Amino acid sequence: MGTKAFTLHGHTGFLGMEYRAHGEDWMELALPWREDLVGVEETGVLASGPIISLLDNATSIAVWVRQGVFTPQVTLDLRIDYVRAATPGKTIIARAECYQVRRSMAFVRGIAHDGDANDPVAHTAGIFMLVGGQEWSRT
């Protein structure tokens, strides 16, 4: 399954996430603004849940991109620091990188912004536990 295919199905597809770009150890996804994803109707600001999902998916896929293969993994720790509210009506872009892989852990970081990476909506840092394919299928 190609990198772009991850955004077509499941949770990412339901939220409407879109592939933007990737490199050797990074992934960029977008979440277009939609009224049904708004947290408080009066403000038009996207709810935090879809932004957390966007960052979780971007960081997770960054691990797979760095490894060059899809392998099962579990989000062990994902810290989200909100800097400001997202601008109503704007697409949120998440850029995440996997900066270190060890035997059973992958370390990630990233940002979410609504058009200016120098003015982020949120920062993220996290750790994914890598699960061997055969061990995963036995449980």
Please describe what this structure looks like.
The chain is an alpha+beta fold. It is 23% helix and 39% strand. It has three helices and eight strands, in the order H-E-E-E-E-H-E-E-E-E-H. It has helices spanning 10-15, 48-67, 133-138; strands at 18-22, 26-31, 38-40, 45-46, 73-82, 92-101, 105-113, 122-130. It has a six-stranded antiparallel beta sheet. The protein has a two-stranded antiparallel ribbon with strand order 3-4. The protein is elongated and about 45 Å long. The two termini are 24 Å apart. The model has no long low-confidence stretch (mean pLDDT 89).
Give a short synopsis of this structure:
This protein has 139 residues and is α+β, with helices and mostly antiparallel strands.
Report the count of strand segments: 8
Content of β-strand: 35-45%
Average pLDDT taken over every residue: 89
Task: State the distance separating the first and last CA atoms.
Answer: 24 Å
Shape: elongated
N-to-C series of helices and strands? HEEEEHEEEEH
Query: If helices are DSSP runs of H or I spanning 4 or more residues, what is the number of helices?
Result: 3
Point out poorly predicted stretches: none
Please state the CA-atom Rg, rounded to the nearest Å.
Answer: 15 Å
The helix fraction, in percent, is: 10-25%
The helix/strand class is alpha+beta
